Amino acid sequence: MEKKIMLGNEAFARGAYEAGVRLVSSYPGTPSTEITENAARYEGIYAEWAPNEKVATEVAVGAAIAGGRAMSCMKHVGLNVAADPFFTAACTGINAGLVLIVADDNGCHSSQNEQDTRYYAKAAGVPCLEPYDSQECKDFTKLAYEISEKYDTLVLVRSHTRVSHSRGIVELGEVEKRDIIPYKKDIQKYVAMPAMAKKLHVAQEKRLADFSKDSNVFDINKVEMNGKEIGIITAGVCYGYVKEALPEASVLKLGNVYPLPEELIKDFASKVDKLYVIEEGQPFLEDQIKAMGIPCSGKDMFTIQGEYTADMIRKAFGIEVAEHCDAQPAPGRPPLFCAGCPHRGLFYVLGKLKKTVMGDIGCYTLGTLPPTSAMDTTLCMGGSIGMTHGFEKIWGREDGKNVVAVIGDSTFFHSGITGLVNMYYNKTPGTVIILDNRITGMTGHQQNPATGKDILGNEAPAVDIPKLAEACGAASIRRVDPFDLEELEKTIKEECEKDLLSVIIAERPCALIVKQPDIPYEINDDCKNCRKCMAIGCPAIEIQGERPVIVPERCVGCDLCARVCPFDAIHATEKEDR
């Protein structure tokens, strides 16, 4: 069989392809995004970006009941959004196989919190598989569809940042040619109203018990016996850390982390002198194993925070860790807007006006940091508008004129629309600023309903944001270029003073999706060293000696610094100067 080096997320997509998946609907979210992007490239798979994870999951559930294998992929906080259809689909069961791949982000590399998706599997009563490397990403995805159809259940596959974004050798397999499973109307199964739901819950508990019993002999749960002194139970990415740190220990590597193979665990525990559970995040495995009456150690030795390493495990077991004298720490890169980023002008003005800014999830969250320091809160996708409503209700109109919401175009479609409707319905005046940069920027430039393109870059209908805002109840709608600082400041001041619901749309494409002028700017001798150019936080401007200097290799020629300079001391270089 052919072998390829694949990113974990590429391997998940390959597993879906080999399993005969017909539909993938997702919302981009690091570290899960590349699964859907790669699935879209396979012939025979219909893939799409949905407005949010709830819609994506509903689409996948519908496809599975219609008879085609389906999948939805998201990051851990995305499952919060999808929880409503997820919990009910867990009860109803499926027709064709249905898999949700959820990537957790231990260490908060690109997320507002750490969550443990395994608890969702337990709460909803669905099997949860956890692969360790790229080969298992592919294999476990295929197995998840077999489990889904055998046990009539939605299946969760849990990934991590280090699994999704690490590469490994993957042996490719044959692609299954699967017919659509005929759909049969069955209101007792698919209509989750109280009378049916009670019976569905009984059936759900039975299939979970059957799966738990059968998992004692699953190949994905592997016992590796070495010495009997130390026994380790682990799963997923921690398996690699354990093997590196404790090569002489006996290991039970779990492939299904819920429900657990109880008899296999009891048998393994009986063969070792001391049992340890090593898992990132919460003591999910440890608590269940202790509930089986099996003594073990785990979180008494390890933290529930962040990611683990082999050295961390060595230290916990009293093994000396070699100092890496030759290793030099990688230079830090402060989180900054890209050169030419359209958000920079907006946050410069908001900071200047000293507005109280309810923020949201996206590249623009960086507006919180110096030098603009122009954002007060960030809660969750779409939360900025609801929080602005709350501030307005507590502070009243006079103080509320100082509060604005900022939200990206993709985030607005994801979960901001309902917040705007809520403000209108509850007669709340206020100002919402939609940052329309024509792309979903933070996760790597995916399309959204306003870009006019689909997941493959083909032409698609584009939702008109001003018309949508008007339909949601906005009484005043203004469009402005965020680099036109004078007009932007004037617009924000005017809209905030109005006793009505207003929307400002800051329109300028992401600097990474349009060609920049690439004629660098320079600071001339007229500079008074006022350093206002430093206030925009451009990575191309730095202090050298006692004065600001533009580093030409970093400058993209966006001209924002020239607009800020009060002394006309910044201008584009002449071609002959370059």
Written overview of the protein:
This protein is an alpha/beta fold and 578 residues long. 36% of the residues lie in helices and 18% in strands. It is built from 19 helices and 23 strands. The strands form 6 sheets. The protein has a 7-stranded mixed β-sheet, with helices on both faces. A 6-stranded parallel β-sheet has the order 15-14-16-17-19-18, with helices on both faces. Helix 14 packs across helix 18. The mean pLDDT is 95.
Quick structural overview:
By secondary structure, the chain is α/β, with parallel strands linked by helices.
- What radius of gyration results from the CA coordinates? 27 Å
What is the typical, i.e. mean, pLDDT? 95
- Estimated structural class: alpha/beta
Number of helices: 19
Beta-strand segment tally: 23
Proportion of strand residues: 15-25%
Oligomer: single chain
Largest sheet: 7 strands, mixed
Helical residues, percent:
25-40%
Inertia-based shape: globular
Cross-sheet strand order for the largest sheet: 3-2-4-5-7-6-12
User: What is the distance, rounded to the nearest whole angstrom, between the alpha carbons of the first and last residues?
Assistant: 53 Å
pLDDT < 50 runs, ≥5 residues: none
